[in-house]
Amino acid sequence: MRTVSVLCVGAAMMLGAMGPASADATTQSEGLAYEAIQSGNWSQAEAELRAGLAVTPNDPKKLLNLAFVLQKVGKADEAAGVYGQVLQLDRDPLLAFGTEVNTRPMRAKLLAKKGMASLSK
User: Fold this and answer.
1) For the chain, first and last CA: distance in Å?
2) Complete domains list, the chain, with CATH
3) Strand runs labelled E in the chain
4) pTM
């Protein structure tokens, strides 16, 4: 059985393997990042994602979301660096990108490659 995480408009809502206190803080931070992305509050989304990455620095969902936010605010070079981090990860989980229930899942590294390619357009 394969596990699919849902990435909603650049924001993930899945917990990593951590203790209850950390899980609660991470869940709240991810929820705030998701809400900020949904409302176009890019500075809050960036802050929440960076805070989450301080706890779980190699989380591909958070990294992809951060790259998405950086791209939206015109920080293409920094976004490219974050997409590059995803490509260097050992893990390559399946993620569903979008807000639709029937969204087709893709590997994190494929999403990073697509994000990287969109920077040059």
Assistant:
1) 37
2) 4-119 (1.25.40)
3) 4-8, 11-12, 94-97, 105-107
4) 0.76
